[in-house]
Write a structure and sequence with these properties.
By secondary structure, this protein is mainly alpha-helical. The protein is 92% helix and 0% strand. The chain has one domain.
Length: 120
Amino acid sequence: MTNTKEPVEDFQQLYNEVKKYIELQTEYIKVEFVEKLTILLSTLVILTVAIILIIAALFYLFFSLAYALVPLVGSLAISFCIISGIYVFLILLLFAFRKAIVINPLVRFLSKLFLTKSKN
């Protein structure tokens, strides 16, 4: 009789171990997801703050450049038009090279973040 109970007990123990393993794996996936999401969001926050500061710096730089151009072009309105032309040129450059400047680095960052194994 003891022979017939042992396989059932072994099966129950195996079932409990597999269930525990699945629960631990699920918890591990959740923790890893939260870690990677935190890295992603913190990078986005830092990038957003950096972009805002760069835009503010460029605004004041180009504003001072417009006033510096007044003696050369003779009019404040013309110097502001020149600065506007520089902005349009920069936007066109960004649009032309968007794949190399924006898309490829973003794809590399996200693939490195989500597709590589943790070193733990």
